[in-house]
Design goal:
alpha+beta; 6-stranded antiparallel sheet; 4-stranded antiparallel sheet; 5 helices; 24 strands
Length: 402
């Protein structure tokens, strides 16, 4: 059986009066003091004796109640001033009894002994909370341990944002092939020994913020290619050497090579040196290397050519004929100096030109006339004197000028 609606009461059942006459069919009742009336829906008794009428009101608007007439008792006309109140009615009593009986008879809503035992065996709130706290702490510890391990794994497998060291290759996405930063081969700066290696499949471009490429490195050829050239500066930023896009080489502001074919320039320079050496009487060819040419350049004499010739004379008396080695030039002036064997002295004569005469100072102070002639065909010098002088053991020095 369904439970019937039960309506709330109000303490001491305060009453009020209807303010206007109503008929037996009116469904609106206006009261003087609506504050004594409980909220709708509820019951209201009109009158106070056995002729009273119990109505059920469903809504209240201002001081006017919307009512269901004859809820208990007979609907009738009532005059203004009739008492009304929320009294305890027969409907209230009967409904309490019927609802209680219905509830008692409905086994489906009662807890059986078995169900009570089952409920008693279940976890208490405190026990459940303790277990929940324990489980939460265990879950936190497990989550923390796993998070720490995941962080350690991530650090070991990836490059840190800051700090740390890269222990393996750092792969770089590229249009083709393998590109990476690798560990070097050792501590050094050579092809065989270096600290890090930038690995590229073919080429690496250098671009500005707007993706304009202005330089390229060819990994396979080991060559830099730039649009504007190459520059070397000091720590202060002062440029000391540059190569521009036209091939001009500048050092400290001076262009030392400007659009020149350096190989051809070197060949031309060597040809010029060889020609100059030959013109100076030093034999040279373009087959000579630069070291050989440098040595030949040092053979060039400046100013007047001369040669010094020492000739030993033994058991000879003036006149004497002395054969000279080849000089490479025809002398026009010859100085002579002869030591006198008997007195271990030396005298000399200076002949300004071939054919001139001069004098030796002899051991006894006498002047000995001499004459010097040169035979260009035999390259021989001949000394003639007007006296007899023993030249045994004497060295005659000839200083010949071109």
């Amino acid at each position: 059986m369904a439970i019937k609606p039960m309506y709330p009461a109000i303490v001491n059942s305060p009453g009020t009066e209807i303010s206007t006459n109503i008929t037996a069919t009116d469904t609106s009742v206006t009261v003087v003091n609506v504050a004594t009336i409980p909220a709708a829906p509820n019951l209201l008794t009109i009158g106070s004796d056995e002729t009273a009428e119990t109505v059920r009101y469903t809504a209240i608007s201002g001081s006017t109640l919307t009512v269901e007439r004859g809820f208990q008792g007979i609907a009738k006309a009532w005059s203004a001033g009739t008492k009304v109140a929320r009294y305890f009615t027969a409907y209230d009593h009967d409904t309490f009894r019927e609802n209680i009986t219905s509830h008692n008879d409905d086994a489906s809503v009662h807890v059986t002994t078995a169900k009570k035992a089952e409920w008693d065996a279940k976890e208490t709130p405190n026990g459940a909370q303790a277990k929940a706290d324990t489980a939460l702490a265990a879950a936190k510890n497990d989550a923390t341990a796993k998070a720490n391990q995941a962080e350690a794994n991530a650090k070991a497998a990836s490059l840190q944002i800051s700090g740390g060291a890269m222990l393996g290759p750092l792969g770089l996405a590229g249009a083709n092939g393998v590109n990476a930063f690798n560990r070097g081969t050792g501590d050094g700066a050579s092809y065989q020994n270096h600290n890090i290696t930038l690995k590229g499949w073919y080429g690496m471009g250098m671009s500005t913020y707007d993706d304009g490429v202005h330089g390229v490195y060819d990994f396979r050829a080991g060559r830099w290619v730039t649009k504007s050239g190459y520059s070397v500066t000091d720590a202060a930023g002062t440029q000391h050497m540059s190569i521009d896009s036209s091939g001009n080489i500048t050092t400290n502001g001076t262009v030392i090579v400007g659009g020149v074919d350096l190989k051809q320039s070197g060949v031309d320079a060597k040809n010029g040196v060889v020609a100059s050496l030959n013109a100076m009487g030093v034999t040279a060819t373009t087959a000579d290397d630069w070291a050989t040419l440098a040595a030949k350049i040092r053979q060039i004499t400046t100013g007047k050519k001369y040669a010094v010739v020492d000739v030993a004379v033994s058991n000879a008396y003036w006149p004497v004929s002395i054969t000279m080695p080849a000089l490479g030039f025809i002398p026009t002036e010859i100085h002579t100096r002869a030591g006198i064997y008997s007195y271990n002295r030396s005298s000399h004569a200076v002949l300004s030109t071939i054919g001139d005469s001069g004098y030796f100072r002899s051991h006894n102070g006498a002047d000995i006339w001499m004459n010097l002639t040169h035979n260009s065909a035999t390259n021989q010098l001949t000394f003639n004197t007007n006296g007899t002088v023993n030249l045994e053991g004497t060295t005659v020095r000839l200083i010949c000028y071109e």
